[in-house]
């Protein structure tokens, strides 16, 4: 026998009150913000090129899409990015992040690892006053990966003793001596895409070579542009003008770029175009530390891999006051360089990029604005939706 209440009619639900237009708009906006945030964190983020260190591969005013899926998105290290205290550093009044809640980071799997010649966005390694995920973004080309040995011989890249194939359009700086610095020369500089972002019109200004007294122009350009100018009748000479840097300027002679005054006990005297051989550290590799190589690994041991009690004394590392002569690398590292080889502050200055500093791979120029063009020529139409190579 059925229960008596089983025959009772079901209650009819009350009709829902329609949402107001303003509430619908607010919900749509909230969904869009959440979706955009998730995409920006996990998949693709947009960046703009502010400096010339990657010319001619990337130009000032290029807008990029950077894929985080290639190397895997990372969980935030500092979810609450509001400093609790401030401190003044030389020349800067910036927040101190030491009191922020910082979480362990995790990188989700990507569909590739960093490859040689990838154009990579990463956090600048030497901003030690900030957590890694709040540091300045840089974009450079990966020249050597973990386990490689890198060397530059007169500007030519060698990897593991063999000439390395280099992508993009690397360029170097020359002094071009001319018979008469006139409008014809300036027009040729413009047509060949030679720029100087320190000049009001974006073109190199005529000057004098202090070594020879010749009149001409300093220009940074790819090899094909240099070959063009060598054929021109108004060019007297075109010579490399990379310059000689003072001692203890480049890594690893400068062991701790912009952080401390630590220098190598055994200087290498490398220069921008004659550099190395330098081994790039690999996860799991055990290093025997000596005065000849300790400077190469000081930032890794003392800063990037968060070991306690590390100090630098007389060209060697100590841990809790005891000499450190052996160390096992905890993560992979990479050597990055700008394509504008004489105008790029890169791994030659501050050393290796840790794997946990990687942000993503530059994949596409989706828009580009010429900072010196007039209104009708502002957009570089030929660069729109151009893959980054």
Structure description:
With 389 residues, the chain is α+β, with helices and mostly antiparallel strands. The protein has a domain of 74 residues: Alpha-Beta Plaits. The chain has five helices and 23 strands. The strands form six sheets. Strands 1, 2, 5, 6, 20, 21, 22 and 23 form an eight-stranded antiparallel β-sheet that branches. Strands 9-8-7-14 form a four-stranded antiparallel β-sheet, with no helix packed on it. A hairpin with a 2-residue loop joins strand 7 and strand 8. The N terminus is likely disordered.
Give the structure's gist in a few sentences.
The protein is built from five helices and 23 strands. It has helices spanning 21-42, 183-191, 223-230, 294-304, 347-350; strands spanning 44-48, 62-67, 85-89, 92-96, 119-123, 137-144, 149-153, 156-159, 162-163, 171-178, 207-208, 215-222, 235-240, 275-279, 286-288, 310-313, 316-319, 322-323, 326-328, 333-337, 353-354, 358-368, 386-387.
- Based on CA atoms alone, the radius of gyration comes out at 27 Å
Distance between the termini: 79 Å
How many DSSP E strands? 23
Q: Give the integer mean of the pLDDT values.
A: 85
Shape: flat
Question: Helix count?
Answer: 5
Give the SSE map.
Blueprint: H1 21-42, E1 44-48, E2 62-67, E3 85-89, E4 92-96, E5 119-123, E6 137-144, E7 149-153, E8 156-159, E9 162-163, E10 171-178, H2 183-191, E11 207-208, E12 215-222, H3 223-230, E13 235-240, E14 275-279, E15 286-288, H4 294-304, E16 310-313, E17 316-319, E18 322-323, E19 326-328, E20 333-337, H5 347-350, E21 353-354, E22 358-368, E23 386-387
Antiparallel strand pairs: 1-2, 2-22, 3-4, 5-6, 5-22, 6-20, 7-8, 7-14, 8-9, 10-12, 10-13, 11-12, 15-19, 16-17, 17-18, 20-21, 22-23
